[in-house]
Amino acid sequence: MTMTSISVESMEGKLFLSGQWVGVDNTYDLFNAEKNSLITRIASARESHVLAAIRNGKAGAEVAAAMPVHERMRILHGAADVVENNRHVYIDAIVSEGCKTRREATKEVNRCIQTLRLSAEEARRINGETIAFDQMPGSEGRVGYYYRFPVGLIVAITPFNDPLNLVAHKIGPAVASGNAIIVKPAPATPLSALLLAEAFAQAGLPDGVLSVLPGFPEDMGDHLITHDDVRMISFTGGLNSGKALMQKAGLKKMSMELGASSPALVLDDAELGPAVEAIVSGAFWAAGQNCLGVQRVYVHRARYGEFLNTLVDRTRSLRVGSKQSEETDVGPMISLSEAERVESWVNEALANGARLLCGGERNGAFYLPTILEKVPDNCRLAREEIFGPVVMVEPFDSLDEAIDKANGVNFGLHAGVFTQDINKAFSAIRRLEVGGVMINDSSDYRIDAMPFGGVKHSGIGREGVKFSIQEMTETKVVCFKTSGF
């Protein structure tokens, strides 16, 4: 593989269309929200580009399906090598366009490399099983098996909060399983996705297998969602957008991660120091713009006062500042409008009787890490995903009460439970209505190899490399009727 250096400047005003960089006249300005400074001009796809990507992607899916496993693995490892050898470019892009600090961006780049390498490893493990057809009377003399085959052309729609690794979680499993894929990144953070496309181009991914189309839905039309040649949609984003997408899409495979309002349960026997550290990290990582972020904290009444004092002190110690600084703990939100939205939600809760313990202040796109208690149930903050640096704290008297409170919203992605009692831990595991329970960790804990997804309004299906591959493949049964053995 011949590797060349990667630069943001070389992608200005270009789409990655079916494996080729294509300059277009339609562009929009990409800004750094912290500095309100121009980063670059981003190509904005139109309907003609979408239709070309679908047409070429249908043909690319046949190429991808015919690619031997060792070739898929070589390409995935090659793309990981490109990211690793240009990590400073990827880190700079995430910091410039997104909401993450330099330390957070560095972690995301490291995870992206791991996700691509995991995808390469899982490519060799897409296996089926033999089937004992003669278990049914009258089926003697039949032998067979099932295997998994790619669905074809996939459309992936990704959000702004993990602009590189979430895209890797779409492209990596798609390539590993022999599919073609079109990525529609969030308009606020397209650079990371375009840079990842260049990594795959340098790794030798055949033309037609991958397109990355930045832009706005009103300019692109509904073809990515409705076109019959699109066989699967992998969507990560908001609940309302996910519902609207499902209503339009028709008969297609769907994988959806739609957000959360994740709880943390702190029981009376919990180690408070580690619990506070985990909850603060889980609540305020990426300025709270994290689907796994802690939003609701329920603390046993016997430990409530002690816990609250420690939580507030630790939150106040967080360093809020420039994304570029290695010393910063919490940077700005993705945009001024998002910071203003969070401010309005907090003000609504305060006007209805909530008590502010720390934070509650906005400065431009920055919103201080905020802790509230006594938030009324009728406030948006109590019912919906805040997607910002705000947590609510509330006491409970029994595990039954805590679990009822945790289950009392329409989301169910992850939950954290802090306890030293294994019986209580297993009771919570069984009864919490979520896709993952983290014992003595916050809801924010995740590795890229585990199944990831939720129940209720938190989504459909599971991600995580191995599990995404299962979603991106179908089973085919093969049965031979013989004359006997």
From TrEMBL:
Sample GO molecular function, one term: lactaldehyde dehydrogenase (NAD+) activity
InterPro entries: Ald_DH/histidinol_DH (IPR016161), Ald_DH_C (IPR016163), Ald_DH_N (IPR016162), Aldehyde_DH_dom (IPR015590), ALDH-related_metabolic_enz (IPR051020)
SUPFAM superfamilies (alphabetical): ALDH-like
CDD domains: ALDH_y4uC (cd07149)
UniProt keyword terms in alphabetical order: Oxidoreductase
Domain Aldehyde dehydrogenase: residue ranges: 26-478
Protein name: Aldehyde dehydrogenase
Source organism per UniProt: Zobellella denitrificans
